[in-house]
Design a protein that fits this description.
heterodimer, A: 428 residues, mainly alpha, globular, disordered N terminus, disordered C terminus, B: 514 residues, Rossmann fold, six-stranded mixed sheet
């Protein structure tokens, strides 16, 4: 027995409690193990990563604030001026961020008080849908980078149905939603098919499919079928009134029924993963393809199905955009939702409700960032910095643990990791 | 050189892997460490070799306390280790591998291997190793690769050699040769720490036997002690090593394989025209050194191999070309050779693993919707019936010990009506206590009238279970012999001798035990 194996099967009955044993040899490649660890990491680490990123973001805001800069020129005579200015710069920015995303305390009417919250939910809708797609694919062992392209194709399908067909209310919207899901599912399902049949790596495939989708939409928008009559601008006609999501809380708010669809999608994905035979197959394929194969589960079918469902979810994000907020198709309709979706799934540890919560948090960042920029002059880019920091911290859990002095999972103590035995042959 | 370990304790968090272990290795002795998997043998050796720092205790060499910061210190102090998995660069020559780590160079930074070659020849001649310094390691048989590892230690003037489960990868003949080499080394004043759980070998070669259980030394024994005594010490309770099974009452031959050929991706015929039958109520054991086509044979039966020709029929129904799911549904129970890779999903719960290939059965799912309650009830029953030691049905299967993981796989496969049961390496890495239990279940399945195929590289297991034994060598059967055949005959067949020749030759030798 090599030292590594000994470590995996510690002696005694206590072995069953030692989490070191869970990192057994079932993971086929180290790359996959790493992704697995990052994507399904610890909830506490995820939370602390957010806290840490907000603190660092606050420091950045303070350092770049002009008032802080002026006060720092006489830092050694009156340090409290600098610190005070720094505190007020960061806290003002964050208060503005909060007021722009949750509750506007200065609002005079009920509507204006809760308006920021509804904005957050509106922005969160596509993030949640696409995030669920990334999370679901990940649970099936696929790193789906392609949500961006899937949103775009889904949006294109949905928009086309929305402005070309003229159908009665209800039926029209239903077809728009279905078209969006089919568009995303076909686009992502192709990736699953290529991976299952040829063994091509899904990361490379989805990245390329993103490029293709982006440029394909630009091309479509240059054809008469997608342009407004008499116009050559790359913008589609307005969707029919029967093809858009009704507003959820009346005309005072932008929040639309797409959010309800996102909630339903979350419940569905939870059921699919945790309670359905299909989810059992997908999770088995994701966690250990060899064991899945031996148990009679088709790994290729799993890949294709997982990608198709993931694409359908991303397609819903596309529908939320064209049928909810934008109501026209442009090349920028997906914004960067597809890439943020990866972050959202990551922060949500690939669980459906975790992704839902992370989607709302990122929605809040986006919605609040606008208010923050308007009221304090702090650029919305700082929000992007905070978002990126969150990913960085989640991807490096040991860093977060070291900063907060958290115990390592499987608390093995000093010298628990064997010095790599591979070196023994070379050392002399 | 006299080596002493005094009060060595190694803790991993709350887990005590070694608990105040004392061990004295006298020069010229073979000191065996006997213990089950996970008893703490390897941890102790890793402490000795400088891979782990001991939490408490000290190591003395010739009565002087020493501290090893790493393998380099241990090697400098005269301790050499041969790992179970060799630490060799396959594409390098023997000399390059031996020189690796303390290479000398000539002018211009060129490697100077002539001195290393000379030393390898000296050592090789001294102990009769028969190793060519210029052979490329990957071309050498496993037994010779192991000798290269020993040479690596000897070149660095090792006085104490640690051999970690050295016989696990060897044929019976290579094992005999290794035991012979160990005798020569000790006669030369070297001492050997021999780690094994194979009682027969330990008894044959040891001067002193130390038994470790749950991280503690539970006793020392003389090599003259009986295997039953040693096994009881190891497990901590009395074990019956011989399975009392009734003679087989084979029925109709319901499983037939005809001219089965399995090709690897490179076109090589890894299973090369096998034809055999297994009857209801009979155990056919497939013996052989690992890598002679066993994996491909069992996978072909389950439908996991791609390039299969020939015919496999179960109750007259052709299985070749059908999907794995169909074959499982047809009543084939399958215990794969590597449970953590093919048998279990480590991150799934015990309950989920117990239905891994039956999750969509009517008993556990209605349409697409699974029934967590039924899955849980099933798990509780199986945990009880198979004595699976787990905290709960919802613990991740990966956290269980090897023996309990194997019980999960076995429980899953044996808990449905079977028409054929195939188990590969059913007790590999399983503790002695569980082996007994698993063997009984296999025999019970046979007695229930199921044809059973056991694939094992352990001769003890083969002889224990088999009603008939087929020996696989390079994808072909060297013959199918009765389960009562001697170890010598099997040994010869495993090395590639057809059954009739092997039987004749074994008659000539007569009476050799090992």
């Amino acid at each position: 027995m090599s030292p590594q194996e000994e470590n995996q099967v510690p002696p005694g009955p206590e072995a069953s409690t030692a989490p070191t044993a869970t990192t057994g040899p079932e993971a086929p490649t180290s790359e996959q193990t790493l992704l697995q660890r990052i994507m399904t990491g610890n909830a506490l680490v995820a939370f602390l990563s957010v806290v840490l990123s907000l603190i660092l973001g606050g420091l950045l805001i303070a350092v770049t604030d002009p008032a802080v800069g002026r006060a720092s020129s006489y830092f050694f005579t009156r340090p409290q001026d600098t610190l005070g200015a720094a505190w007020s710069a960061a806290s003002n920015a964050y208060i503005a961020l909060f007021q722009g995303s949750v509750i506007n305390v200065r609002g005079t009417t009920f509507t204006s008080v809760i308006y920021p919250l509804t904005q957050t939910l509106t922005v969160a809708t596509p993030l949640i849908c696409a995030g669920l797609g990334v999370a679901l694919a990940f649970r099936a062992g696929l790193f789906n980078i392609g949500a961006q392209g899937q949103i775009l194709i889904g949006a294109t399908f949905a928009a086309w149905v929305g402005f070309t067909l003229h159908l009665p209310a209800g039926l029209h919207l239903l077809l728009v939603v279905l078209a969006g899901m089919v568009g995303g599912a076909v686009w992502a399902g192709l990736v699953g098919l290529l991976k299952a049949r040829t063994g091509a790596h899904e990361v490379i495939l989805t990245i390329m499919f993103n490029y293709i989708a982006t440029n394909l939409v630009l091309y479509f928008l240059s054809t008469p079928a997608f342009q407004r009559p008499g116009s050559t601008n790359p913008i589609s006609p307005q969707l029919d009134d029967t093809a858009v999501y009704p507003l959820l809380l009346g005309p005072a708010f932008r929040l639309h029924w797409g959010f309800v669809v996102a909630v339903v999608a979350t419940v569905f994905v939870w059921w699919l993963l945790n309670r359905s035979t299909v989810g059992f197959e997908l999770r088995a394929v994701g966690a250990n393809p060899s064991a899945a194969r031996t148990a009679g589960i088709s790994v290729s079918k799993g890949y294709i199905l997982a990608m198709a469902i993931a694409g359908a979810l991303a397609g819903l994000a596309g529908v939320a955009q064209v049928s909810g907020t934008e109501q026209v198709l442009t090349s920028g309709v997906a914004a960067s939702f597809g890439f943020d979706a990866i972050t959202v799934a990551l922060l949500g540890r690939s669980s459906p409700w975790g992704t839902f919560a992370a989607g709302i948090l990122f929605g809040a960042f986006r919605a609040g960032g606008v208010t923050m920029q308007a009221s304090t002059g702090t650029s919305i880019d700082i929000v992007l910095v905070v978002q990126s920091l969150i990913v960085l911290f989640i991807a490096a859990p040991p860093l977060v643990r070291a900063l907060f002095r958290l115990p390592v999972p499987g608390a093995a103590g000093r010298g628990s990791t064997p010095r790599t035995p591979v070196s023994t042959g070379a050392a002399a | 050189m006299k080596l002493e370990l005094i009060g060595i304790t190694k803790r991993f968090g709350s887990l005590v892997a070694n608990d105040h272990i004392d061990l004295v290795v006298e020069p010229g002795q073979v000191h065996s460490l006997l213990g089950e998997n996970g008893a703490g043998k390897s941890t102790l050796m890793n402490v000795l070799y400088g891979l782990y720092d001991p939490t408490e205790g000290e190591i003395r060499v010739d009565d002087e306390p020493v501290v090893f910061k790493g393998p380099a210190d241990a090697m400098a102090a005269g301790i050499g280790m041969v790992h179970q998995h060799f630490m060799l660069v396959p594409v390098f020559t023997v000399a390059e591998n031996v020189a690796l780590g303390n290479e000398t160079t000539k002018a211009g930074g060129l490697l100077n291997l002539s001195r290393t070659r000379e030393r390898i020849r000296e050592i090789s001649d001294q102990y009769g190793f028969d190793v060519d310094p210029d052979a490329v390691v990957e071309d050498l048989p496993v037994g010779v690769q192991q000798r290269v590892e020993i040479i690596k230690a000897l070149v660095r003037d090792a006085e104490v050699l640690i051999l970690d489960e050295p016989t696990a990868v060897l044929t019976p003949r290579e094992t005999d040769e290794l035991l012979g080499i160990m005798g020569q080394l000790t006669a030369d004043g070297k001492s050997i720490v021999f780690i094994s759980h194979k009682l027969r070998e330990v008894k044959a070669v040891s001067d002193v036997i130390t038994v470790i259980r749950r991280g503690k030394v539970v006793g020392t024994a003389e090599p003259s002690a009986s295997t039953t005594e040693l096994a009881s010490l190891m497990v901590g309770r009395s074990v019956s090593l011989t399975l009392d099974k009734a003679p087989a009452t084979p029925g109709e031959a319901s499983f037939r394989v005809h001219e089965l050929v399995v090709q690897a991706a490179n076109g090589q015929r890894v299973v090369d025209g096998l034809s055999f039958e297994v009857s209801r109520g009979e155990i056919l054991a497939v013996a052989g050194v690992q890598g002679n086509g066993q994996t491909e044979l069992t996978e072909a039966i389950l439908g996991l191999q791609d390039h299969v020709s020939g015919s496999i029929t179960l109750d007259g129904v052709e299985l070749v070309g059908r999907s794995v799911k169909d074959i499982i549904r047809a009543g084939v129970g399958f215990v794969p050779e590597d449970r953590s890779v093919e048998g279990l999903v480590g991150s799934f719960t015990v309950a989920e693993n117990l239905v891994l290939n039956r999750y969509d059965d009517a008993a556990f799912a209605r349409g697409l919707s699974m029934s967590p309650a039924a899955i849980r009830t099933n798990a509780e029953e199986k945990i009880e019936e198979f004595d699976i030691r787990t905290q709960s049905a919802s613990s991740a299967a990966g956290t269980l010990s090897g023996g309990n993981q194997q019980k999960v796989v076995m429980a899953r496969e044996l808990s449905r009506p079977l028409k054929l049961f195939i188990a590969s390496q059913p007790t590999r890495g399983v503790d002695v206590g569980s082996i007994e239990f698993l063997h009984r279940r296999i025999v019970a399945e046979r007695d229930g009238g199921t044809p059973v195929i056991i694939v094992s590289t352990e001769l003890d297991e083969v002889l224990e279970l088999a009603d008939r034994i087929a020996v696989l060598y390079r994808g072909r059967f060297m013959g199918i012999v009765p389960g009562t055949v001697s170890r010598d005959v099997l040994g010869l067949m495993m090395a590639g001798m057809p059954a009739d020749e092997a039987l004749a030759q074994a008659d000539d030798i007569e009476g050799g035990d090992l």
